Sequence to fold (146 residues):
Amino acid sequence: MSLPNRCKFCPDAIGEAADIAASDTWSGGSPNRIDSETDPGTNALVIRTEAGMELVEAAEAEGALVCGDEVNPDFMNDAQPHQVKLKYELTARLDGLAAERRTMPRVAGLRIDALGAANSPESNRQITEGTRRRVREGMASENRPA
Fold:
């Protein structure tokens, strides 16, 4: 499976700005880590607002949704480790795009600067330089949608 380049720079891949975010929940972040015939996987909903809660409750009451156990942030970190990594690396990745004069999103209110500051300066430098290298090698672009 190929991930579009734009997804590697998504400032809200975990849906912090959404009422509800939905996610696959494979242990370790990948169906390749388990036997998909004995464990088909599940999905999780992160409900962030009252409007989101009302929508989920209505869907469940109508039988359109079956809810199971509640999950917590530690569970989601295990199920989506690549999203955790992306969120912590995003500022450095965007710095790499900016240094190569590439188009990049404007981001506000999504904690990326604070999370990026939790990385070591050396780690951020390596991420920024890796992004710059991929841009120069033509590995950080995709065709424009028609």
